[in-house]
Amino acid sequence: MTKISVIIPAYNAEKTILATIKSVLKQTFTDFEIIIINDGSTDKTLEILQNIQDDRLKIFSYENSGASSARNRGITHATGNYISFLDADDLWTPDKLEAQYAALQAHPEAGVAYSWTYVVNAEGELLRTIEHTYEGNVYGEMLLRSFLTCGSNPLIRRGAIESVGEFDVTLKSGDDWDYWLRLAYKWNFVVVPKHQIFYLRSVTSKSFKLKVIRDSALTILDKAIKLAPVELQYLKNISLSNIYGYNVQLYLDSLSFNSNTDIKYVLGNWWKYVYYNPKTLKDIGTYKLLIKILLAAIISPKLMSSLLDSFRKTKQPKNLQIQP
Question: Which pTM does this prediction carry?
Answer without folding.
Answer: 0.90
